[in-house]
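Lecture notes, unit on protein representations.

Consider one protein chain, 82 amino acids long.
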Amino acid sequence: MTEEQKMQERQRIGQRFAEVRKETEWVDANGIKRKGMTQTELAERCGLLQSNIARVERGYFSVGFDTLEAMAEGLGKKIDIV
């Protein structure tokens, strides 16, 4: 895989995480059901920095499976490898 292909794949994955984050329904600390989550809210839920969430979503950050799994769990989702 070329460097350009790797970048495109990171961008595709990051864009999908951003879409899911914006569509996710969840209950906040006050018990209020909400739709969509900010990068900061996701970062707090999964123990990452907001800036790292932003880098992943833009495809600028090559991350390991553990980080992607933490982000998915923060969204109440799981990662399926197909």
